[in-house]
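This part of the workshop introduces the protein records we will be handling. The question running through the whole workshop is how a given chain folds. To make this concrete, we reproduce a full record directly below:
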Amino acid sequence: MATRRVIYRPDRAVSDDAQLLVRFGRDFDEAQALRLALVASPLYRAVPGFERGGALCVSAFFVADEADAVALLADTTWDHYGLATVGALKAAGYAVVATDIEDDGELIPHCERHVDVVVSAYPAGMAPYDKLGRPERRVIREQLLARYATALRCFDPRRRGPDQGGPVQ
């Protein structure tokens, strides 16, 4: 089983006018994206303010413009993507923090561009998502889906990847 780690990077500048890319693969399905974010939430205990339970986040990458986004996506299997500015995300009530993601001791590709959009703290007092029973998981998902889906929609209109054609209708 792979070991994943989140490393908080306060030294990486995150300016309001910076453009962010979200890659939508399984994330195109908002409920599935939420499940993945809930499983990963304990990793975000590394981010100040979320040490107790972790955070629910959307993973994103800095890009200069849409051409840069398409170039970044060229070597991935992600089908769709969306763009938003840091300022727009902050105006919608989300924090944006610079992080590195490490898998089995190796930084993920394009890590120097990586940030996380913090949607919310993991529910206080709850066991980690993967330790909960199905009924408790369903309750958490029902409570958090609207806020998580709203964060993903900040990156709309969703576009198709380089080999997929134009915007998603």
The beta strands are 4-8, 19-24, 55-63, 80-85, 95-103, 106-107, 114-121, 159-160. The longest strand covers residues 55-63.
